[in-house]
Each structure stands twice: as C-alpha cells, then as structure tokens.
C-alpha cells in the first residue's frame, strides 16, 4: 500500500466533508425474543443494568449467556464499519449485567465466555493478552477462533520472550539482558506462525508490545532500532495488521522517531497508539501516526494517567471489580473519538481495545467512546 503523505489530513478528525464510511448492518433480533432492536443504550441504562442484576451463584453450566439488552444495540450500526472496539481480555466477573447475563467465575469466562462476548454488537474484537506471558500453540488459538463468528477479529500480543529486553524475576524486576530480544526467527516460530495457523482469517492484529527498556538501551537507541529493523522484516505470510507499541517516551524523541517511523513504514507495519500512563498523551503521539499515513489505527487505551507511570497495580486494586466508571478520562476519550472518526472516514481500519484500568469498566468506556464517535459521524 502506498503511504504517500496527505498533508491536508487531520488525524483528529477535522476532515470537512469527508465520508463517514459504511454503517454496520443492523444486528438480527435474538432467537425467540420477538422484539425489535431497542433504542441505543445510554451509559446510565447500562450501569443500572449492571448494578441491579441479581447476584446469582457462580454458574457451572457449559455455556455463558450474554446480558440483555446486548451491548451496543441501536448504537453499533451508527459507527464506521471499519471500526472494531473490544476489551483487553474478557474474563471479568464484574461485567455481570453488562456483558454476562449473571455471575460466572473468572475461570469459566476465560474458557467459555467468548461466544457470549462476541454476540454483543459493540464488541467486534478482543485482545488475547495471555500470549504475552507464554507462547501459545496453534491449537490453543484455534479454540478461541471456534468460539466467535466469522466477522470477529483478534488482537494478539507477542510473547515477552521476544518483546522484553530483560529477563525478569517473579517480582517483575529485570535480572539480566534477554539474549533473544527482538529475535525474528523466535518471533516467527513461537508467535507469528502459530497465531496465523490457529486463528486464520479471524486474526486481525499481531501486536508487539515492547516493554520498558533498561537505561543502557535508552542511551543507545540505535542498537535497538537496528534489531527492530530485522524483526520488522517479517515475511509476507504474516500479513494481518502488524503493530508495535512502546512503553518509553524515548521512542518519540526527535533523534529516534523518524528512524522508528521509517522502519515501520518500510516493513508495512504501524505504530500502536499506546494510551498508557508511561507514555505522553495522545496529541504527542499522533505525529508518529501522521508520518505513517495512510494506514490503519491500532490503539490500546490502558492505564489512566491519574495513577502515574507505575500505577497499574494500584489502578487494578482501586477500580475492581470493574463494574462502573470511576475515573472518567474525558480528554482522552474526546481526542480518541476524533482520531477514530477521521481515520475511518478516510477509509482506513481502526482497532481500539480498552482496559478496565482506563476508567474503571471497559464495556462502559466502550459505550462512552462509541457514543462520542457516533456524534462525530453525525456532525
């Protein structure tokens, strides 16, 4: 694909009379419901449903039922067809009444929840995060693929074995240099090929999340850039969207960002917009995306900046059980909505996955973002 620069395009969505893209087809009524699709769900209605759902005992049933009304009924069809929203994983019991019909254990949701999850019109993608902690076999990916419809897509994280420059102890501290950091052969054998084989056409994004670099590498970024260039030259067999997320602002330095963009552009990969407390806010990351235009958007809306760059554990503790919005981040939401509307309006795909740690409840953040994007579409 040509990446000729479009100097008039504003990634914040100020595209004048640019088209909005095709709308989603209306979701079919649920079997046996006999009811028309209800009006668009508001945040208040969804929250009330979640908080008033009866606390039933944990289910031992073989299937997980989706909550009713389905998340996004009456709203999803107003969004760009090129947009896919979803969660950063899915096995959260606190989503009872929003995504799940009743209380299920985390184990049951992890094993059997995807079918119910994928029935919600708003949830068209999800991130497989467990692959970061250990490589998965093609057969494990195939189990996930079998649970979702043909139009569903997965975002899959590469193993830390490839993406972390350090070998870490159980407490998370780096112990020694990782000798296989950014090794392309290992990435192909343990990640790219199994994911492509197991998920097939349901693989949407291969995501390399590069963990925070040790100080020695931050000082000598040229070494890491050279290694990244070798990894980025993956063969054509690996051609879903390939995206790289970073956790060090140094990647955006004036002496680093142009070379980083060149490596991604030459390999057909893109930059993952990482909305994380370790990284600058969205406006400071967008110049890198502009340097890669035209191309898809991959965005992970992760930890709210109020918790600080090392506040993931605190956010997880304070925001659990992830059943309501507790830390609204309106500035990020509005900027992201403009960005998504602008990129999809220019005919490019957008994948946005959201963590509970962004605002307190990923499904409700998805609703908030979807409503903001729909407003941009209607403007």
Q: Mind explaining what this structure looks like?
A:
35% of the residues lie in helices and 14% in strands. The chain is built from 14 helices and ten strands. Strands 1-2-3-6-7-8-9-10 form an eight-stranded parallel barrel, surrounded by five helices. Strands 4-5 form a two-stranded antiparallel sheet. The chain is globular, with a radius of gyration of 20 Å. The two termini are 30 Å apart. Residues 1-9, 14-40 and 49-59 have low confidence and may be disordered.
What's this entry about, in short?
With 379 residues, this protein is an alpha/beta fold. It is 35% helix and 14% strand. The chain has helices spanning 43-52, 106-112, 114-117, 138-145, 160-163, 184-199, 215-219, 221-232, 257-267, 282-291, 312-319, 330-345, 356-359, 362-378; strands spanning 83-88, 123-128, 153-157, 166-168, 174-177, 203-210, 241-246, 270-275, 297-301, 350-354.
Give the topology.
Layout: H1 43-52, E1 83-88, H2 106-112, H3 114-117, E2 123-128, H4 138-145, E3 153-157, H5 160-163, E4 166-168, E5 174-177, H6 184-199, E6 203-210, H7 215-219, H8 221-232, E7 241-246, H9 257-267, E8 270-275, H10 282-291, E9 297-301, H11 312-319, H12 330-345, E10 350-354, H13 356-359, H14 362-378
Parallel strand pairs: 1-2, 1-10, 2-3, 3-6, 6-7, 7-8, 8-9, 9-10
Antiparallel strand pairs: 4-5
